[in-house]
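Objective 1.3, modelling of assemblies. Example input:
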Amino acid sequence: MGAKTKIISPYFLKVTVGLLVVSVAVSIGFGMARAQPAEVKIGVIYPLSGPVAHAGQMSKDAVSLCVDYINNKWSQLPIPIGNWEGIPGLNGAKIKLIFADHRGEPDRGADLAKKLILDEKVVGICGCYHSSVTKTVSTVCEKHKIPMINPESTSPVLTKRGYKWFFRATPHDRIFVRDFFEFLELLTRGKVPGVGAVPKSDIDEIGACTENTEWGAGTRDVIKEFAKKYGYKIVSDVTYPHESPDLTAEVRRLLTPKPETLMFASYISDAILLTKTMKELKAKANVFWSQDVGFYQPKYIETFGAATQGILNRTVFSKKLFAVKPVARHINEEFKKRAGVDFMGTSARAFTGMQAWAYVLNKAQSTDPEAIRRAAETIEISGKDLIVPWKGIKFENVGGETNQNTWSSGLIVQYQKQEPEIIYPLDAATAKFIYPWPGLK
Amino acid sequence: MEMLLSTLVSALLMGMLFALVALGLAIIFGVMNIVNFAHGEFLMVGMYTAFLTATIFSIEPLLTLPIAAMVGFLLGIASYYMLVRYLLKGPMIAQLLGTFGLMIFLRYLAMCIFGPDYKTLEHGLLIGKSIMWGPVVLSYPRLGTAVLSMLGFGIIYWMMDYTRLGKALKATALDVEAAGYMGIDTEKMRGLAWGLGGATVGIAGALLINFYYVFPTIGILFCMIAFATVALGGFGSIKGAFIAGLIMGMIIDLGGTYLGPQYKFALIYLTFFLVVVIRPKGLFGW
Amino acid sequence: MQIRTLKDALSFGDLPAVERIGFILFITFCFIFPWIIKGGFAQAVMIQFLIFCLYGLGWNLIGGYGGQVALGQAKNVGMSAYTVALLMVRWNIPFWVCTPLGVIVATIESFVLGYFLFRLRGHYFAIATIAVSLVWQQLFINWNFIGGARGIELPLRETPNFIYMQFDSPVYYHYFAFVLVMIAILYMNWFRKSRLGYQLRAITANEDVAESLGINAHWVKVKAYCITGIFAGMGGAFYTVYYSYIDPFSVMHLELSIMIALMTMIGGAGSMWGPIIGAMILIPLDRYLGAWLGGRGILGVDFMIYALMVMIISAYEPRGIWGIIEKARRKR
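Predicted structure (tokens):
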């Protein structure tokens, strides 16, 4: 034993090993530092001006806040990105956002995507709110082989095109509408707290009112499909032009066959006008459900106040989640300080989309598009890290869809005293369901 | 039957507002044969004026009518003396596209100042109230708007027919040169026509804010309806604008209710097209 | 006869030397553009510029030389774009077969409409064209067979494909658009010197006198309007394959018609180079300033500059920037 140890002195061994470790570490570190940029650029395309600029600006604030969390240390924040200073997998490279304004025009969006990809050399794209713009922008990304994560466009078609570079984090309209019909089924079986079993004949006559652009027209098709599948009748089916000067005729046509369940898909301007007109015409129904967007914005609650009582919305976010998700409360407080409003469906999804980007980059450990794409295909983000009540984020190819986040899910919330209380899924419910809809008071 | 009755009532109420919006366009066209594409933007300015005065000084929205009328009047006069006067010397293409320029300018000026948000008034004498009258729901803001629109119409009609000023305006409209020989300051009359046009549409804007939201690009919607109304009533005819306004209300509401709301604009534009092609003078044009 | 036509189209001999040099510079610039400018956005803006040149050159025929303010150019663009997209998506017909069909549809629409509308004069004509384009847009929004408000998207093919005009690099689109613009310019050059051109200008100067000289004013205007439709149709077909997505809001919008007219007006309606100058100013202004301001949250300023230009030009020099240039040249 003794002889052996004398052949190579322990002192010498220690020094050599130490030197080796240091030199390897230095060379790796040096190599990494050279291979990895100190900054990762992500292009963000939103409607920052034009008719829906309000939503675009909120989304911009949300993604900026998320990037602030990623780039700087926020030790009080109870999720991993609070401790990050830049992307750990990229040696602390900071994310730099480059914003572009598409004004709701698909061709402008496509041109701007080229600007971001070819001139700004972004590693990926995030956006674009409008499903129509997301279509052209994702085509540009696909052609240039640059990954795109879409936080909020809900047109079902988007993930059915077989695109390899397009990832969608949000549930789409088929999922939302299906959830609602599931909820109605539960209602008839008396499973919803706050109300006994409702006879199906009290809710099975549907009045659908959708706006007439890509999103509304798509929703209308899905509503028709599921109504048939679940055995509901559509008694009035109204589509109206976006930004119409007068919706009296629409509302009258919607209400005349006395529908029991009202379903809406509207942008904010139309949602306000529709609600005003319905208020004037003293609309009555048993259930009032709408597809987020126009009916689920701070502006809408501010405009109608107590009259919003009982309106249902599909969404992915509610302030009521704070009880089970303290992190959401924490982030919401910071968001309110900056943007002046609470998180709502759109802004929460934009935040989550950017968070997904950070995780994907972290996993890819490279800014090579192919590596990012592979990371996105295999990533599994736990729901605990998110502010939305999903199982998490996992992009999968199922049922003819490519790269759809299958761990995402929708919520159905009901305005009660101007607060969006969660009604569905039942295990997350924060309040009893108010039935029937009390009307617009 | 119930539905028909309530549709008719709301069609008439909305029609009166459309008529008031179209009135200014008709006056301007009558006096100097120029189409004002910025008319919808004048409406937008009226709406913002009423909205801002009502919220900043927290006064009853109906009391903002004179202020909106004043702002509209000044805007009309300014547009005439700073732009339209020069356009009239040029070819027709310059006249048409010059007011387009004004339209885009006003619209994006509002966008720059107020941002793209939708703004609505929530408090006021009429806002959000309605009564049931048999099967018909009467909404107070619409009813008030219709009554005040009628009043405004009456005043303009009376002014045109019974005051010296109105007669001078009419004379300028019929024959500029002859009116000049009679000692009428035609330049002033034209300016006045723009002022009047702006004032009436400003009032329409202040009324509209009682039940409608305002945002910078709202103008084009009402502008196209106003064009259709004026074309149907006859370019330059005040009586025509009134009756055509009611007809437009009917087309929008009856067509929207019975044929399907998605076709209501197509119907308006189709009427517009057919009138312009079959009877370019309109119902009462001269 | 045919050789004569070709000679007329290709000869710019009657133009002053400065204009000829300018034209050669323009062609050279467009030709070498993709090689000297590598920026992706610059190339996208350039293609947008070429598309609008094509629209503007077409509109100039009826709006400039003909003096008829037609504000419905977007419907012709849309008609052709939709024909091409439908045929390509539903029946997989090659682009090169669809395009002539699209152009034919756009032209037929122009013919029928022009036949009825040219009984009107002045403002009435302008307003009627707006009405028609709005009716078409509404119908297209509600017509489910063609996708309604959802629009039509061309499927992305695996490999670049000449038959369906799908390429990864914008260079191919650039040259295709450039060829279309060259055709339009050569056509306009022929048109200036043609019988139709003289007839149309005579009508613009004084319709009654022209009629008394035996010109069938109605027929001449209808012909010119059809030709305008052809160019709009070509632009629409190109737009479809370039962006591979169309909806009634992007190709049939009134704003597009207005943009085309205002652009030509700013450059100089009724002159050969007017539409090109107009597009050269407005398209970069729109895209670059819009992108720059939009990223900074400043709204509307680019449109205000554009509107001020329109107002100043229509008030002081209705013949546009080309008019100003000519005036300066004459003074010298």
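DSSP finds eleven helices and two strands in chain B.
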